[in-house]
Amino acid sequence: MSNIEAAPGELTCGAGPAGEAGRVQVLEAREVPLGGVRAMSVRRTLPQRRRSLIGAWCFADHYGPDDTRVSGGMAVGSHPHTGLQTVSWLFAGEIEHRDSLGSHAMVRPGELNLMTGGHGICHSEVSTPETTTLHGVQLWVALPGEHRHAARGFQHHVPPVTVLDGATARVFLGTLAGETSPVETFTPLLGAELTLDPGARLTLDADPAFEHGVLVDTGSVTFAGTALAGTELGFLDAGAAKLELANTGEGPARVLVLGGPPFGEEILMWWNFVARTHEEVVAFREAWQSGSDQFGAIPEVPGAPRIPAPVLPAVRIRPRGNPAR
Prior knowledge:
The chain contains 2 helices and 27 strands. The protein has about 325 residues and is mainly β. The chain folds into 2 domains: about 1-15 and about 25-160 and about 265-295, Jelly Rolls (Sandwich); about 160-265, Jelly Rolls, CATH 2.60.120.10. The protein has a 7-stranded antiparallel sheet with strand order 2-23-20-25-18-15-14, with no helix packed on it. It is globular.
């Protein structure tokens, strides 16, 4: 979706501080009112001052469950992206996606939609009239320098349900629990939904070259012995060959597992753009405002008009990153 904050912050994102080996850093979500026509709010765990990336994962918004009869649902009109891939994953509801590559697809629970907006793409996202509850996550992946101007792309994948001892897994990116996703990415990544039965304990093989994050959707768990609940995100530095998870609540617990090798480049994020310099952001914004072919175009969706870019800050963007190592 679009980051339609009225005054989006500017961030330089780079490799985070080296954590204590085997120790989980707990990151709290912040409530972000997106504003715009629908005034939708989300819980954002990435980026933030304490950590801006997990591997190449650079953005994580968690929303719902929302009663669309009250909230009005999602109606995000045409908006641009550069230098990234968007990963849409739903737990409940249905969203209609259209982009300037010509893709027209539905986002449904348990199904991955991955869109590449390297050089430039625009798209819209609107929940369907049949949707009464909307619940999911929107994730972004930063593209490495050699691929950050990649052509527009779109991939759809329905991962199988992998049955584990006391849990199920849907692996939508990378490899986990013996399942490998066929979806192509520009850096090694892991993305999976795990649902743990009450009392379940899991120990899963992991790539020690990866950083890992566990985002709690429902219930409460421990991740490498550290308690997580609500919408907290637990971060584990690279080096772990096993991922240990346990459901500590009375009902099922659902989490997303994210991972990837530390992203060795510094990036700048402003609004819907991933860039490297202030000048690039200015150019991207001007291109969108002027209707440049860089982003292409899609037909306007009724009730979801094209989203103009916010006003740039009055001073040169001086983004902030993770604390120094």
